[in-house]
Amino acid sequence: MLTRTFCHIEGIGHATERSLWDRGIRSWDELLSVSTLVPRVGAGIITQTLTASFAALAADPLFFTSRLAGGEVWRIFPHFRSRCAYLDIETTGLSETCDITTIALYDGETVRTYINGRNLDEFPADLDRYAVLVTYNGRCFDIPMIERYFRIKVSQAQIDLRYILARLGCRGGLKGCERQLGINRGALDGVDGAFAVTLWREYERYDNQAALETLLAYNIEDTVNLERLMVEVYNRFVEMTPFPEEGRLPFPPSPLIPYQPDLHIMDRLRRRYR
After folding, report:
1. In whole numbers, what is the pLDDT of the chain averaged over residues?
2. Nearest-5° angle of CA 78, CA 249, CA 29?
């Protein structure tokens, strides 16, 4: 799909891109050969951008995400999938002064977790292994929080599913989007960010390992589900193009989750704080 994309070229929007597709111009090579057909953009801009695009295919996803609207960055996914990480953080609240409690990082094969007071300082080095970060609302929350907390600049290309899912009419937070797309969380259904704070406090105050493992299970569920959502939205958008048969991705298998929620502690905390 990426090499069929033209709307990262300055001056080409959805309507022009669709017009080119309808006229049988469906690849960068084909557009280069007829670049004069888009006179209001100019052959020079088209040639320059597509030449740079071919070079960026090797290892520069940021070239594309910096030129595509937030709702269009799904287009880079298959090409850079092997360099993607799915990311979600848990915190003690929503303000800038809050702490990060746990982080889950998943690359489609391996789940890594980071815990405040244990190994949280290992996270920045591990993050550098990846070129693309997939989040839900990460542009507004997770990434700014990570940058403030670790005093680093996150330089990876970003795919924020919040904006992509909104284009499909899916809103209401990550869990609401999951429900609309048929993803069932099982025992973790109903657990949210506020309850995640409660779990962390229970662990911190009483060294309750069951509470910590339940929090990690929840954090991982958020993260692993990002891959499932990414594949789902990619397939839905590809089906809206003139070439759906060329791009559909299989639904990913579920990875081994190293932690399981403790139903007893969840019930006890709900009764305590309801």
Report:
1. 94
2. 50
